């Protein structure tokens, strides 16, 4: 365990697997080993207690109280098994929900399959991120390259990045309507300002030796930007974009609640309203899997594109 | 010239495709109506799935929203009409989005509840206790009404502002003694804390909360005949749900819309009193009691002003539009 020492291939593999298994192991332990947490009792037989139903959850203290009362009065004793609150379903229940939710046909005639909803969400993210990048990336590079541009823009951008994107929901609906427009706008507002600052910073970190060398060789001012700065920061820029794409995803749930309810958010919020928490966690897992999957693919593509950049190979 | 128009047309097409891809523009229907997760509104799904809207010669698109998002969309003028409570119609109107309540869908008949933890059996037991409630919304109105009937004042309880969606967890946490919520949240709250029970419900104050179709006045002026047809479709829906022979089919459609089983949905429907055209004629009569939309809205208006939801009382005659219902045979 030496500082900044790369790992062997074998160690990389083992630690990679562990990073997936450890959180799962914790979740399994909490779910399947009653001694760990299980603060409630799930009723299997209500006995003589009129207000209990099979499947109801109650705290252990309240349950013990009812059992003691029933025993003292010689009534039928309620029975139950220790359980976690419904808000924390077990990994098995979530896995099953994950499978069945894809197999369940749309409930109504105008309804959508889950994969259609997911695809809709992916499109929202795609357009939101694309629009943000079309403006954010060039502006970020210009801010990084020219101090004057930075001075003109960055105070406002610094201010704007603290604004809560979802609070613009009603305004976005008023301007862009009730369908995908306002949702995309929220993703853009949430991503754009961070994007400008991060990319400006990346641009500033370009090795000054490269600039000096280029100037010594007689590069003109404009060429300096297109031939030196941009190629110089490309690998880092690519990595920034990967991080920012993840950022865009975090705005999805608030964005999709604006205007007509759509996409994976419809699934997650509706299931949460009726407390079908295994489905909720399955929906959350889907977002995680899509996010991680895209990032892994992008990392792979990045290693091909920027084969000279060693830091990319390490991080991927 | 021909070439240049061709080019223009091509550019136009590209622009249109691009824009519609971004904005998700679909074929605009004549009327768009917002609806959300409340039995009296989910009932419209029956008309949608059965094709009754088309049969009536209507080109209406029902858009599914989160409730508060539907009011935002209506306030922004992006939909023609929205299904909301009469109190919220006043709030939306006071905020600048004028609307006409032309159709009453239902009143809550037990779905709205004040649910108390085990050990608290009546509103009187709540004296000095904490109640988790979304301040300024309908459950707050329900609680105020109940306290008044129990001879208490709002000052007798401490309100804790809580999102209605989260009230089941709030009650189960044990940090409040009661919560106020509508279905399905109220039912979930009872389930999440066995022994807890409703101590006051909208069944004890029928007509306190009416649900209405609030229409943009400009859209109403332009499509008056369509709205009259919509009224007939609604009457059909109410009849179909009320008839024991067809109710199971209606329950199947409605429960599917929200992702429940018909058995799970039955109690939610039972807590809603749907109002057909004949009964609506009585509701549109101008009296001061809660059996009239006027009396109920007046009550909601007082509550809204008192709780500073908006500043000055609203002129109800500008909101309530009985003529369409009264003209029905």
Q: What this model shows, in words?
A:
The complex is a heterodimer of chains A (316) and B (329). A 3-stranded antiparallel β-sheet of chain A has the order 2-1-3. Chain A folds into 3 domains: 1-35; 39-83, no CATH class; 98-315, MetI-like fold. Helix content of chain A is 70%, strand content 4%. Chain A has helices at residues 9-32, 60-73, 91-103, 114-145, 147-160, 169-176, 180-204, 208-216, 221-250, 252-256, 263-273, 277-305, 310-315, and strands at residues 40-45, 57-59, 79-83. In chain A, helix 8 runs antiparallel to helix 9 (221-250) and helix 9 packs antiparallel against helix 12. The mean pLDDT of chain A is 89. Chain B has 329 residues and is an alpha/beta fold. In chain B, 46% of the residues lie in helices and 16% in strands. Chain B is built from 16 helices and 11 strands. In chain B, strands 2-1-3-10-4-11 form a 6-stranded mixed β-sheet. A 5-stranded mixed β-sheet of chain B has the order 7-6-8-5-9, sandwiched between helices. Classes of the chains: A mainly alpha (316), B alpha/beta (329). Chains A and B meet through helix 6, helix 7 and helix 11 of A and helix 1, helix 3, helix 5, helix 8 and helix 9 of B.
Features:
heterodimer, A: 316 residues, mainly alpha, MetI-like fold, three-stranded antiparallel β-sheet, 3 strands, 4% strand, elongated, B: 329 residues, D-Maltodextrin-Binding Protein, domain 2, six-stranded mixed β-sheet, five-stranded mixed β-sheet, globular
Give a brief outline of the structure.
The complex is a heterodimer of chains A (316) and B (329). By secondary structure, chain A is mainly alpha-helical.
**Rg of chain A (CA only):** 27 Å
Helix and strand composition category of chain B: alpha/beta
Estimated structural class of chain A = mainly alpha
- Overall geometry of chain B: globular
